[in-house]
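Example record

The entry below shows one chain as it appears in the dataset: sequence first, then structure tokens.
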Amino acid sequence: MPPKGSKSSKGKSTEAKMRAGEGSKKRVEDTFLMDQTAAKAPKLEETIEQLNVKNEKIKQAMLGLQFGKWNPCLLIKAQIMSLMESFQVNTVDRLNPAHVIPLIIPKNLIKCGMYMTEISNKSPIPVLQVRDDAPTNWILPAAGGQHRVAALEIWLEKKHAQLNKYIVKERALRKQDPTNVDEAKLKQWNEGAKKEKDVLEGVVEYEGAWLVSLFDDSMIDESLALHIAQNETKHVYMESLMEGLIQLFKIMKAQGSDYWQVKLVPQSKGNASRQRELLRQDYVWDMLSQFDTAGIHYWHTDFMLFTEFYMMMMASYGGSYICYKILTYLVGCLEHKLHMCFNLVEVDEKEKAEAAQEKLEQLFDALHDAMPIPEAISNGIREAINKCFPICIANMLGIHEIGNQSSTDWATIFAQYASEVPQKIQEQVMILQEQGDLDKLHSEVSHALKTCVIKSKIIFACDTRHEDYAGFPFMSRSVFKILKKHLTCIQSTIYEVCLLWF
């Protein structure tokens, strides 16, 4: 109930005047009827002003996280929703050292003093901040935690939605005429809803904050990085069979092993044995090696399901075996064709325009023999090239003549592809240049990117040469699926032809 004016006073109290309509204030927000005290700022031994600034840094950091470099885990919706429900019931234990997200990063990328060597309850945990002079598109490679980040994002959306409902309710109450306000609703707000709103405001202030452990990448070789990631997949995330196969391959490769050194699991015919059985095949090892150089481009695709992959690679029918040996060979050739665009060979646009075909072929030979710089082939460039294939080729009539240089239909659509790919690569390079990041990269990577467009044009200009991969597109997920489909259709014929030679 609102307070009543004193009878001994000469005039009516302010509240009483408003009841009578005599005061100039006409809304609840202009009275003391409603609890409008500011919510206490959330504290982890820091002020709210500092948190607001740091949360912006955290949100930027979350956008810069890169998953998949050290483990091939695919985001699984069921695991995300399970985590999110756990957050709802048990709250987000984001500062627990047992739940840290491991990051393997260059030490010179982060600001000094923005990390601590041990966690102490007496000291506030610093918020990771990236140096101001870091490249705009900086990335923090994480060895795990993508399900936590994804679940946290969904959880935050729900918390923001809940908070918005309280804000709407609060605004509606504040705008009401105090003489007509529902006292029951006002009491409910003051005694319950206001406290819940304050709690939600405190929760969302921390946004995407999460405790991370930092590993200096100059002290972590690939084997150690994979070990860190393996701890995540074995004890935090239940990896799939395909992810386990890829992780086992990456670990063995980092240790300098080869396919013939893979040991089978004694007295076992389960999935662990099947994984090793696959890795003991030279063509499987070669194919995974090609895929591994492409980062995560191939790992999370529909043809990389363990059962399908096992049946595909271990088929007992001779035609299938030969078919996938050919497929592995093509993957290697077309990956090499793409890598020819990214190296330190000196060439410029003017030289290419004025060069005769003989000169172009000399440049082609130089590109063919040059040491590639695979770090320059970003995921963005691969994705751009991957999209060119379905647009220019996959849905066209000439797709059935793939690689057939004597086919007019294939020549027509391949010419369109050869024109489109350099343009898409150019767009990706321009993005880096406009952001001012191209010159901040390693000098060799920067040089390879600045010259990759003209080199791709030279490769397509000389594509009529009798090379193993002449008339074929650059390797990508889309190309792999089409090659696999076409080879499967003619595997019987391939087998019959092979029998003539043996």
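Notes for this example: Residues 1-24, 41-63, 233-237 have pLDDT under 50 and may be disordered. The first strand starts at residue 65 and ends at 66.
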